[in-house]
Hints:
Layout: E1 2-5, H1 23-44, E2 48-51, E3 64-76, E4 91-94, H2 100-103, E5 120-132, E6 136-142, E7 152-154, E8 160-168, E9 181-185, E10 189-203
Antiparallel strand pairs: 1-2, 3-10, 4-9, 5-8, 5-10, 6-7, 6-9
Amino acid sequence: MSTKFGATGKFVLVFSSQSLLKKKHLMNLxxxxxxxxxxxxxxxxxxxxxxxxxxxxxxxxGPNNLYTVTPCRILDTREAEWYSRLDPExxxxxxxxxxxxxxxxxxxxxxxxxxxxxxxxxxxxIAVNPQGNANNDLGVKPYGASLSxxxxxxxxxxxxxxxxxxxxxxxxxxxxxxxxxxLQNGAGASTDIVIDVTGFTxxx
Length: 204
């Protein structure tokens, strides 16, 4: 079974062989997944369809395919050679693929499952050991774009806080995309940042 973005607004399961599940159990499962997919669609502004390669009626429409990966660390400012702890009102630009990953404190072998032409990523972002006098926020944006929102809020005194987010990225096959993402720290506190990628999107 593969997962694709689509315009149908439903999460559809299609089995290529006879299912061992009874029909009513399968229908209940599909209803439950549809409810969760609708909630995700409302948050991300996308349509989601999960389907197998066959049969033909499972064909979907939409600009992107979604792929899940084994969680792979792309950034850890505690271990990075290139970066250090984020000070208040500071920013850092990072890559989600390639040889930069180990230098960013990420997986020593990189994240080979993430392609250079990915145009979006699902991430778990962790603020580690925040220090300062006020609660703070962290923004995430595609490299070269304007910041349009907050990816997470964190506060000094709590050693680690995390949030799962989806962000578009500046794809590596596009001119001017020297990095994939930019992180923008707010004014209230400094923090180390750890990011694990759990999935990505590609144009269809």
